[in-house]
Records
---
Amino acid sequence: MTSQQSKESTEKNSNTAEATVEEKPATAPAEPKTESAEKSAPSLEEQLAAAKAETAAHYDRYVRAMADHENFRKRVAREKDELRQYAASRVLEDLLPALDNLGLGLAAADQPNADVKTLREGVAMVQTQLKSTLEQHGLKEINPVGQAFDAHQHEALSQQPSAEVAEGNVLNVIRVGYSLNGRLLRPASVVVSSGAPNAEEKK
């Protein structure tokens, strides 16, 4: 066999092998196994049990929240009631010295040699002490003699003519009023001037 024939034989064998390789069908990829996935997926019974457990947990939190809210409401109501009962304790405590002095004045008035002038001065001192104590707690006296009538703070009982007080101003205060921290407690009862009397009124 010549070298030329040997070369042709080798090329023929090579082409035959390539054809054999090309004709061999490709191996299909293996399908994934679903057995483990089916085992990991929860059943309907398991899903229902989990939903029931979650619902029970939410209901338990709801019951606890409602109980906490009810306890908070009761505590606020109790504190509000206590505040209402003892809100005036500070004011009353500050008024006790004036009350004590008033008792001393009454005891002095019972003495056989009691002096009316001295008793009057003592009562005036107690009044001043009482007003000072109340002013410290925001109480303000409304005594508008000579001022313009204010329907928001004054209560007009009547009108009288006056040559000294201008028309519409307060001529006389029958009962003083009071306000607490800017809020009206009692209006001042007043007599309002109707101006200078005319000739007929003078007669």
Note: The longest strand covers residues 154-160.
---
Amino acid sequence: MTSILWPEGFSVEPLGRLHKRLHKRSDFFSGVDAVDQWLKTGARQSQEKRLSVTRVLVKTPDCIAGFYTLAMGEVSFDELPHEMARRLSATLLPIVTLAWLGLAKPYQGQGLGGRLPAQALSDCHSTGLMMPYVAVCLDCASRNAKTFYQLYDFQELPGHPMTLMLPWNLLEAMMKREARVSGKRDRMPLQMPGFNSRSGHSQGFRPISPFLKPESEAGV
């Protein structure tokens, strides 16, 4: 599993209890109302119903600096790009949706906005090694969000200009490539406070290697 290097004092953990206390969600503010309300009122309930999983970026001692939500979903065979669909069965196909992601205002502009989606994609990759799916999908809340995720090799789902997908084979190639060059790049991704998704090959690829732990520390 690819490990993301976080600044000192930050850690990512499942939404729930921290030191026998609930994570404090009421003060979270990313500047995107729908994103904030999801964390405050929807994320935990959805997780308890086993409909999604939310992981939070915690700043010591107990402050949620960011979060993302992942869920399983399906996409129709005929919605996929032809070059991808022609190799698959004509049926509903499994996907992972990167459903919600938000970074709190006080922590924007510190490089965390690139690490958070990198961590989410790492989790998606780990899931795909155990449970097969054809792509990671998300719905962009704005054109800025769309531009940001296209830098991670996401591409449009045909007929849905604000829905992006990252095929499994590209995600796997990305993780293998970035693991090889971990620690050797100095470019930092753009930052985006949040996006939401209802669903469930570009030349602008943005490397995630600045955020990866060296292999010797990956298990730490």
Note: The CA atoms of residues 165 and 218 lie 27 Å apart.
---
Amino acid sequence: MKKIRTRLSAKIAPTVGLIPDRNGKKPAAKQPVGPFNPQTYLATNGQGKTTVQAPQKHLIFSQGDAATAVFYLKTGRVKLSVLSPQGKEAIVAILSPGDFFGEGCLVGQRLCMATATALDTSKIVRIDKAAMVQVLRDETDFAKLFVSYLLARNMRTQRGLSRSSLQFG
């Protein structure tokens, strides 16, 4: 018996997206993603973000806990406090909607430097450190929002320290 050889003159590679589906229609083109919106990013879960509802007096994290996320306060109020070695509590800040906290993890802090407690029923977005680093790197609009927030808070803190030093000085 003689073998029959077949030769292909050219290899045919499939072309994705140009062949109609079984209904005779071309596949739908992907819609272009619109410009990045920081508020939309903070309003949606996924990509390392979760939104939690914290009841009044709920402990969000404690001084000395592992610092692994940045938090964004959507509704309610949160108290940041520190405990001295003598057991005295000092209130560092009362946060309002639109405030970030826990950002120390971004600069290498391994432990939380304060305790965060919900003063009211609060809606809080928890952003994993890796997700926060990624969005800061990739999305300049979000980076601008975050840096503006940090600078404004730094100015408020300095103003408060200047006033208190005038009172005690």
Note: The chain is about 25% helix and 25% strand.
